[in-house]
Every structure is written in structure tokens, then in C-alpha cells.
């Protein structure tokens, strides 16, 4: 790719990347909501409750504040320059070409391995109703259906994601309303005699396992929020990003308060924390205690939609990120192709094939080897969040020095909030290193880093223009480009 070709890409005004701006406010809002509700809440919370008790509520609240700080930092960058390859684009501009290269490929890898895991998980959930269906057949069916939907149009992707999110939201709100009814009116439920908010402090106190145990759950809690930044990838295809994206980000606090904190308060009031077990969904336990006979089936269906939602989001984001890398000459040029419906068909196809390979790997290699692959996703997510924060700090410095225009959606606390969030992410990495079960992700990521460094060196030799054109920290020249594209 020549420097002139790169300039043409950079100077293209928002909305002219070739994509269809087919995501409306309703869909963006639900994508933002769905990104904050995943299998980490429906399944993973059981393990965290058994480790920390009611104090897990505090962990989710604290982590939620940090996530909001990250998303407001992203909001500043999105209103400054709403592009589809947002994280990689900002890294190129504010941190340099290598950072953009690493961020683009790392976020792509994050969703590929997440798609591998979630497709396999969805096939396992189907066995609850149809144990006779081979796992590979269910996984393949899900992949093909979601793949076709992503190729047809971004509007169909948005609509599918809207209804997946609606299922998750409805389930949690229903659980909360039923729980409130049992706690206040009894509702003729078997749980009414023992349900009480005193369970939050009665069984060993609010910190029954000590404050240290509560702190250690922060790593589990942060992983439950992975994917919340997906709304940033939709910037290039949102009908009105300047209006819809800030609105979606600003609703994040109440979403966290309701779907995480609120749901856990109700669940832990219905059932004492000592009765939850690792690996068992707290929603199944609470629904069952209330006396709903189909509790396990309901939660299984909700978790199935959560897994499919994650896989759907993975196909969407990997296609856009891979095409963005190709546009910069950092991936094969064939990935730049759009089909007649203006979706990155080739990039989506390659990413989907790799997700499907995960299903095969799950059969032909030991479970431990597959765990090594999927564990990369956790550190990839932390890397992306850290890049967002550092880019916002650099952008603020450029804005204050007059080199870039002021943001239209300023983050509260400015750079100080981002520095605090960065410190929190560093603390989470330390917690990962201290925990034997999750430490594996820190072993796997350096291997990925070596691949990236080697690939970058090859790229520098074969296509130096692509590296030089990849962007640079904000300065006078980027200011001209930003203004011409606004």
C-alpha cells in the first residue's frame, strides 16, 4: 500500500469507509446492553460467590466504575473520530505504528478465540434438550446461521443482536421482579419462609472469607465485563454516532447497577451464599428455590443466547478489524473486499473458519491444550482496555496543546480518571499472576507477542510503506487530517 493510498483512507470522512450506516439507536443501545451481560454473569458468578460471599456485590460495583471510566474514555475518542477499526486506529495515531498493529491483531484474536469457546459452549447447552444431537452438528449449524446473517447486512446483525440482548435483559429483570415479590409479598413461594435481605450479612458477615478473598474475585468480575467495548467497533456503521454512542455509553452505570449489582442482591437475599457451588449457575439455584419448575431450562436457554450473542459479535468485530488491518497493508489485501451489501465478506469468512477450527480442536487435542488457547482472550481484553485509556490520555494532551480539536463528549475526571483505571488494570494483572487457576493466561500471551513481533519484522521488510503509513503519535500533521475528515 502506498502512502497516498493510506492518506486517502485516513482522510475519508466518517461514514465513507465503504460500510453501510445501518445500525440505529435501538440496536446500538441493545448491543451496548448485551455487551455487558454474558455467560460470566449467568454461570461464572456461582464460582465467585462461593469464594467471596455477599461481598462479591462490592467487587462488581467497583469493577463497574472502572468499566464506566474506560467506556467514557472510549467515548471521547469515538466522538473525536468515529471509525470502525477504532481501537487499532487510535493506537496508530496516538501510540505509533507498532501499537496499532498489535492492538488490531490482538483484538481480532480476542474475538476469534472467544468465538471458538462460545460456539462449543452453545453446542453443549443444546444437549440439555437434545442429548442425541452430536455436538459438532450443533456447533456447525450455529456457525453457518450466524455467518450467513453477518454476510447479508449489518442491519440483520444488529437485529439478531437486539433480540439476543432482549432475552438476557428480560430474564434478569424477570428474576429481579420475582425476587422482590418473594421478599415482600411471599408470592406463595417455598423460598418465602427463608428469603431475607439479612442473608447479605448474617451468614458470616458481609466479608465472610475476608477482604483478601473479595479482592481476588476482581479478576473473575472483570472477565465478566469483557465485550462491553464492542460498541466502539460499531462507530463506522452507526446511523448517527455523535448522538447514539454517547447515549449508549451514558446508560452503562444503570445497566451495571441493575443487571449485575441488582441481580446479585436479589439472588443472595433469596438463597444464602453458603448454598451456592462453583460451576452451578446462581440463577438456576435461585429460580429453583423460588419454585419455578422450569428454572434450569429457562436459564439454559438464556445462557445459550448469551453464547450465541458472543459468537455473533465475534464474527462482526473480527471482520471489521481484519479489514481495517488490510486497509493499512498489515494483512493480505484480499481482506479489504466488501460484498454488494457492504459487509467485509472475505474477512468474516476467514475469521469464521478459524472459529470453526476451535470446535475441531476441542475434539482432537487434550482439554488443557484448548484451555491454553482460550485463556489468551482474557489478557487480550485487558490489553484493549489499557490501549483505550492510554490513547485517551494522549489525545487529551494533544487537545490541550491545541494540536487536535476538543472532544464533543468529555470524560468526567479527564486524564486522572484514566490513570486510576490503568492502575486498576495493572492490579488485576497482578491478581491473575497470584491465582493458580488463571495464571496460565500470562504464560500464553508472551507467545502471541513473539508471533506479533516476528510478523511485524517481516512486514517491515516486505512492505515498509505499510509500517510507515500505520500512523504516528498525534502531532501537527494528524491535526490537519482530523480536521479535513470532520
Automatic annotation (TrEMBL):
Domain Amino acid permease/ SLC12A residues, every copy: 28-465
Database matches in PROSITE patterns: AMINO_ACID_PERMEASE_1
Localization (cell): Cell membrane
Residue ranges crossing the lipid bilayer per the database entry: 30-49, 55-74, 94-113, 133-157, 169-191, 211-231, 252-271, 291-311, 345-366, 372-395, 416-434, 440-459
Alphabetized UniProt keyword annotations: Amino-acid transport, Cell membrane, Membrane, Transmembrane, Transmembrane helix, Transport
Record membrane topology: Multi-pass membrane protein
Protein's UniProt keywords contain Cell membrane: yes
Xref: Pfam families: AA_permease
Superkingdom: Bacteria
InterPro entries, A to Z: AA-permease/SLC12A_dom (IPR004841), Amino_acid_permease_CS (IPR004840)
Keyword Transmembrane helix: yes
GO CC annotations on file: plasma membrane
GO BP: amino acid transport; transmembrane transport
Family assignment from sequence similarity: Belongs to the amino acid-polyamine-organocation (APC) superfamily. Amino acid transporter (AAT) (TC 2.A.3.1) family.
Protein name: Amino acid permease
Amino acid at each position: 500500500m502506498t502512502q497516498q493510498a493510506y492518506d486517502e483512507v485516513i482522510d475519508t470522512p466518517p461514514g465513507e469507509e465503504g460500510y453501510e450506516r445501518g445500525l440505529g439507536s435501538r440496536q446500538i443501545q441493545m448491543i451496548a446492553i448485551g455487551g455487558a451481560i454474558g455467560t460470566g454473569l449467568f454461570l461464572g458468578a456461582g464460582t465467585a460467590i462461593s469464594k467471596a460471599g455477599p461481598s462479591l456485590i462490592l467487587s462488581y460495583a467497583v469493577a463497574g466504575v472502572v468499566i464506566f471510566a474506560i467506556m467514557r474514555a472510549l467515548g471521547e475518542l469515538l466522538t473525536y473520530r468515529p471509525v470502525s477499526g477504532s481501537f487499532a486506529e487510535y493506537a496508530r495515531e496516538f501510540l505509533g505504528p507498532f501499537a496499532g498493529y498489535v492492538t488490531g491483531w490482538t483484538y481480532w484474536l480476542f474475538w476469534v478465540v472467544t468465538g471458538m469457546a462460545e460456539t462449543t459452549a452453545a453446542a453443549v447447552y443444546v444437549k440439555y434438550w437434545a442429548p442425541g444431537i452430536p455436538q459438532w452438528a450443533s456447533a456447525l449449524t450455529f456457525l453457518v446461521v450466524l455467518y450467513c446473517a453477518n454476510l447479508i447486512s449489518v442491519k440483520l446483525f444488529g437485529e439478531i443482536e437486539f433480540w439476543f440482548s432482549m432475552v438476557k435483559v428480560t430474564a434478569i429483570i424477570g428474576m429481579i421482579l420475582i425476587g422482590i415479590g418473594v421478599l415482600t409479598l411471599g408470592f406463595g413461594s417455598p423460598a418465602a419462609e427463608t428469603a431475607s435481605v439479612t442473608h447479605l450479612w448474617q451468614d458470616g458477615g458481609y466479608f465472610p472469607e475476608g477482604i483478601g478473598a473479595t479482592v481476588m474475585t476482581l479478576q473473575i468480575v472483570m472477565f465478566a465485563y469483557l465485550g462491553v467495548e464492542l460498541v466502539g467497533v460499531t462507530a463506522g456503521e452507526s446511523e448517527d454516532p455523535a448522538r447514539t454512542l454517547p447515549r449508549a455509553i451514558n446508560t452503562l452505570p444503570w445497566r451495571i447497577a441493575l443487571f449485575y449489582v441488582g441481580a446479585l442482591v436479589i439472588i443472595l437475599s433469596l438463597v444464602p451464599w453458603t448454598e451456592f457451588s462453583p460451576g452451578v449457575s446462581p440463577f438456576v439455584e435461585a429460580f429453583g428455590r423460588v419454585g419455578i419448575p422450569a428454572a434450569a431450562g429457562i436459564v439454559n436457554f438464556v445462557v445459550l443466547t448469551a453464547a450465541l450473542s458472543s459468537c455473533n459479535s465475534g464474527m462482526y468485530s473480527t471482520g471489521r478489524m481484519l479489514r481495517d488491518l488490510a486497509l493499512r497493508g498489515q494483512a493480505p489485501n484480499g481482506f479489504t473486499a466488501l460484498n454488494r451489501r457492504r459487509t467485509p465478506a472475505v474477512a468474516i469468512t476467514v475469521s469464521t473458519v478459524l472459529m470453526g477450527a476451535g470446535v475441531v480442536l476441542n475434539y482432537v487435542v487434550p482439554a488443557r491444550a484448548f484451555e491454553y488457547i482460550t485463556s489468551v482472550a482474557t489478557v487480550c481484553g485487558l490489553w484493549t482496555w489499557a490501549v483505550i485509556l492510554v490513547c485517551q490520555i494522549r489525545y487529551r494532551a494533544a487537545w490541550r496543546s491545541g494540536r487536535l480539536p476538543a472532544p464533543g463528549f468529555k470524560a468526567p475526571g479527564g486524564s486522572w480518571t484514566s490513570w486510576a483505571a490503568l492502575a486498576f488494570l495493572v492490579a488485576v494483572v497482578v491478581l491473575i499472576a497470584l491465582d493458580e487457576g488463571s495464571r496460565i493466561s500470562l504464560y500464553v500471551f508472551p507467545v502471541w507477542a513473539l508471533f506479533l513481533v516476528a510478523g511485524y519484522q517481516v512486514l517491515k521488510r516486505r512492505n515498509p510503506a505499510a509500517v510507515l503509513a500505520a500512523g504516528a503519535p498525534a502531532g501537527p500533521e494528524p491535526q490537519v487530517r482530523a480536521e479535513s475528515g470532520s
